[in-house]
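Its record is quoted verbatim for completeness.
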Amino acid sequence: MNFAEDWRSDFTITIERKALGVFEAAGLDLGALPGKRVRVRGFVEWWNGPMIAATHPEQIEVLAPASPAG
């Protein structure tokens, strides 16, 4: 999952294809994440920009939308 248009320099979360079932079983719909605020926990590595490899669904938390400033 890339978080900007330039995947070579933006922030990325990677999930191995073989782990997708674990994320789905935990109720995390990865296809619904674009446009959502998320918190991801893990070690930041540099691979075509900053990247965290998510191996467990508990690493990804969907957050409430940001409240407007004011």
Notes: The CA atoms of residues 3 and 35 lie 9 Å apart. The chain has a mean pLDDT of 88. Strands lie at 12-14, 38-40, 45-46, 50-53, 60-62.
